[in-house]
Amino acid sequence: MMTDNRAHIPLGDAPIPISDFSPLDCFGSKPRLLFCYFQIGKGEDMEPPLRLEMEKSVKDAITEVWVRPPRCKYPVVGLPWHIIPYPDCEITRQQIGNVGAHIQLGELWATKTVALKFTVLRPALFMVFILDGSLTFRNRYGRIVSRAKARTFYMTYNYPLSFTFTVAKGKHAIMVVAIDGDWILRSRSQLPELHGMLDSWQKEKKEEIVLPHLPLVHQVKSLLLQVRNEIVDSLDDGIRVLIHLKACIMTYHSMLAAKRRATRREKTGQVWAIRRYVYRHHRDREKCTASMIAAGTGLPVWRVHELIKEHFGTKPYGYLLKIRMQRAKHLLKNTGNKVYEVALEVGYSDASSFIHAFRKYHGTPPKGLA
Fold this sequence. Notes:
The protein has 370 residues and is an alpha+beta fold. The protein has 2 domains: 8-263, Jelly Rolls (Sandwich), CATH 2.60.120.10; 282-368, Arc Repressor Mutant, subunit A. The chain is 36% helix and 26% strand. The strands form 3 sheets. Strands 3, 5, 6, 7, 8, 10, 13, 15, 16 and 17 form a 10-stranded mixed beta sheet that branches. Helix 5 (235-281) crosses helix 6 and helix 9 packs across helix 10. It comes from Parapedobacter koreensis. Keywords: DNA-binding, Transcription, Transcription regulation. InterPro entries: Homeodomain-like_sf (IPR009057), HTH_AraC (IPR018060), HTH_AraC-typ_CS (IPR018062). This is AraC-type DNA-binding protein. Residues 272-370 form the HTH araC/xylS-type domain.
């Protein structure tokens, strides 16, 4: 139970003060719950947006126990366990309805690799917390939507569709929370990295969005532990849970923003590496193929193609031609060199090939600039 409402979560460029999270922001119309996810829904009704599918025989065999099963590692205080005996896989599940939120935690033990089916019943945002093990999610068409590894978390948007998740032999654990959607929309200005996902959710687009998987850092583990240990007997208790949950989202957002900034810096460095390499070697066409650029910059060949297309709008040879033609124009205007001299300088073995390429690129013959 949190006793210091001024506690800070030091992550990203600046700490996130817990006291900045208004309890009133956390209220919505009705709470919801789902299995395997932190879900942010719209609050139409009490039905969870995700349904775990099972045969009637499995449903009839579900048992409820109040004594913690020996294998359960992540108990939610004060709740019973529901034991779901799938063939080749046993699931223990805990759940609680809270003001504005619904929490569930599932732990799975598989005796071999198994695939279980679930259905998203309406457009929904999810946050996935993988505590142990790993899961592979596929949509009903068999396309892999996500590969989730232990000690990671991420956000995703899905529209109504059936999915399967596959687990390998062994132990797997996933924490689940569903939250009323009104408060997250009121927090939109604080979450610019999530705007695209929030827009898709609001417009109920028929698409799947999976944001980057991020490490389950100490701050998030601590928040989830507080959620699991909070005994909800009053409205104030429920508000404290919602404060912890909002802090999870804000922490994810901070980490995501930092990751994207780092990615942009890395991409900028890679583009400049390609620029430098091609400029140095533009006289030798054989050294400016995608494979040679990749070898010279330490990038994969596919990344070279991707960056040249994204930043220069062309293929590797098209970028080489651009460098050659820009260099040739500069030399013709500023050095007084002859056309054939400039042709040799930018990598052409004869003047006629250079003149043809120059005219095609610039729309004018080179002698007009010489």
